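Example 3.2
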Amino acid sequence: MINQSKGNRASPPLAVKEITDVYIRENFNALARYFAEQNQLLNFKFLEFTFDGSVTEQKVPHGLGFTPKDIIRSKVTGPGVCTFNHRLFDDEFINVSTTNSVRVRCYVGTYFRDASQINPGETDTEDFFAKIPTIPGKNGNITSVIRAYLVQDSDDLILIGTPNDSDSTAVTLPDATLYKGRSIQFQKNDDNFIQHQVLPFKSTQTIDGQTNTTLCTYRERITLQSDGTNWRILLRDYPKEWRSTFYANPSAITNFGTVSLTHYQWRRDGDRIIFKWTFRAGTTAAAIADVRFPTNIRVDTTKLSINARGYNLGLAFHVTNGASSAFWSANNTYVLFYDNTSTDRLFFANAGASNAFQKLNGNSVAVTSGDMFLEISMAVQGWRG
């Protein structure tokens, strides 16, 4: 048995001030704004009705005066499932079936271009909601997450962080096929190199043709939009200034003794990181020297370009007085190279090497208390341009 049925005026725009349900009101406002931007009209009424138990093909009066084609923003509470029997809609009633007791709140009506149409939305070309069931969001809502999260209808901007500066956070998008036209923004909200992931709802869906996308540096942000099948990246941006954050310091500069006067900078350039380091060596050792990257920074081996001698990713200068009081000589210039094995570090080789790069010892690169200047540019695993 129907306990109640109520609605507000059918003339567009809908008198949303009469609706008390915040969830439905805010989402309809967003939808109405979207259609206004498209110069298109809405004729919908808000209905609320309840059933005490299961019903089959029950009529519910709508009061529109024409046969509606669409149900949008339906919200069903209670143990039952409500099915809208669209084939039985007419100019007086919508038709529903339920499996148990339910409370239903929804909008019923039609989108149309011409207000004079007798039965708006009748043709396939006019049946807009068959292609875009809902356009949620657009309310300016900001959500902060630090653990696995599924994007909600009310989310517009999602700030992604981590609770412990070590674990990555995964955020899952809604089903692209149900949200054609919806756009969502994401921003990395923690100041570190932890790579957070944005994932499609289904494994068969993609983000710009990929199985996921990442947010890797502080304040990096992306805007995604559903095309009705998959998600597309409309915008990716990130700060590009030089920074000296503590976590970008190399985890080790080995076999140069206890280094001092360390200064480092880094900045992002697409999928690449550019490092600049200076330090004063301690007592250098007769053992292989290397520079090791901070956590979560690893050489992207799929984007390396090899020359005849090896993978050259940077240069190093050992500053001493050269011949005729020159600041340094050619013998004090070195290549920093990837050895095709260790993605977390680079090694030193003679810049003038005529054969394949050979790893040098610390005491072959710098003298005790010598000053070193390093500059590296390389693609990083997981970073997107």
